[in-house]
Amino acid sequence: MPKKHTDVLIIGAGLAGSLLAWRLLQTGQKIQLIHHPSITSASRVAAGLINPVTGQRLVLQKNIDQLLASAHQLYRQLGEEFNQPFFFKKTMLRTLQSKKDQAAWKKRQRDPRYQSYLSNMEPSQCEGQQTVIQQHQTGYLDTNTLLNSLHRYFQQKQSMHSLVFDSHDLQIHHDHIVWQEIRASQLILCQGWRGMHCNFFSYLPFQPAKGEILTLSTSDILPKHIIHQGKWLLPLNHKAFKLGATYQHQNIDEKPSEAGKQELLKALISMGMAQKNITLKQHQAGIRPNTLDKQPFLGMHPKYPSIGIFNGFGSKGSLLIPWYAQRMAQYLEHQTPLPSHADIQRFSCA
Questions:
Q1: Hey, what long-range contacts does 166-173 have (CB within 8 A, 24 or more apart)?
Q2: Which of 42, 158, 227, 276 could form a disulfide with 286 if both were Cys (CB 3.0 to 4.6 A apart)?
Q3: Taking Cα atoms as reference points, which of 218, 316, 315, 318 lies closest to residue 271?
Q4: CA pair distance 50, 67, nearest whole angstrom
């Protein structure tokens, strides 16, 4: 007979799995969280940027008001719980580099939905001939510090374990599963891009993309804002900053490459940073769990109702996961319907 009885067994302790675990604990659910001892989640590499308007066409994220409110509320709650801040507000300065960018900005200026998120720079603040706009309600989540705090909390509650999950060891029943010494009513897989290789959800259309990020330090004065010129520069404390990110769909792996590093350093020159005063502190690579239709994957397997997935947040996890974790927690506890655009029922498991 299994020694541990729990409501939800979560596989994967990146931002998705960890925030879902937190949401479930707050509703009184019992959880067990499994972290692979030799895998670094993409959440550990990501800069944690929160940016409501993205892409060359300056597209406002759908349901942005709900998403931002949920993210701010959760990160503030976690900051109070652990007595330290995790989310930091920073305005973003974006350079419009092409005619397509300029056309998109001209269109957005006439759209009242964008007034809270985009504005012109004062002419005296702009350098050169390029147009620079301000993006508002932007900032970044210190994902590593947050995950460290959450994981210590789960470990103190004996709810987190460093183990290798193998689905072949899984015993599946209609209303529960058994894995090793754990009996759970529900199993939720939060494995990032590795979810595409999972026996249960390989039918879902993942579109993983590799990204590389540099952490650097400088003796120069850093800008106060996030700088976006195709690539982005995120100023941190103590003369450190992050620079990212590359985007690669082919031949993806989690290894930092010389080509990726040079691509980023080349972008740094266009931002006016003198490379002679810069020291490379860290070069990381991760794989974004993107999806074909740009929407997350939430829900239970059509043939195995005790097995579910919470995945597919791509490069917007810091913004998206708090709100979707709340929806998923409500679904698991009360069977509250999931948002139709994110429910995996939109795909066939034929």
A1: 167/198, 167/199, 167/200, 172/304, 172/306, 172/307, 173/306
A2: 42
A3: 218
A4: 10
Domains contained in the chain, number: 2
Q: Could you give the CA distance from residue 92 to residue 147 in angstroms, rounded to a whole number? A: 25
**Both tokens of residue 249?**
């769909």
Q: Are 332 and 338 in contact (CB under 8 A)?
A: no
Q: Please give the C-alpha separations between residue 28 and each of 32, 161, 281, 330, 333, in angstroms, as whole numbers.
A: 13, 20, 42, 12, 10
Q: Are residues 154 and 192 in the same domain?
A: yes
pLDDT in tens, 305-340: 999 999 999 999 999 999 999 999 999 999 999 999
The CATH code of the domain that includes 211 is 3.30.9.10
CATH code assigned at 10: 3.50.50.60
Provide the edge-to-edge strand list for the sheet that holds 139-141: 49-50, 139-141, 87-89
- Nearest Cα residue to 332 out of 296, 304, 307, 297: 307
Q: How far is CA 207 from CA 143, 222, 251, 283, in A?
A: 23, 35, 12, 23
* Residue 307 to residues 170, 174, 316, Cα–Cα distance (Å): 11, 9, 25
The parent domain of residue 176 ranges over 4-46+144-205+293-346
Residue 334 and residue 298 share a domain: yes
148 and 282 in a common domain: no
Contact 330, 323 (CB under 8 A): no
24-37 burial code (b ≥16 CB/10 A, e <16): bbeeebbbbbbbbe
Q: What's the rounded Cα separation, in Å, for the pair 47 and 244?
A: 8
Residue 57: inside a domain: no
C-beta neighbour count of 319 within 10 angstroms? 24
Cis previous bond, 245, omega within 30: yes
Greater model confidence, 219 or 70: 70
Percent of the chain with pLDDT over 90: 83
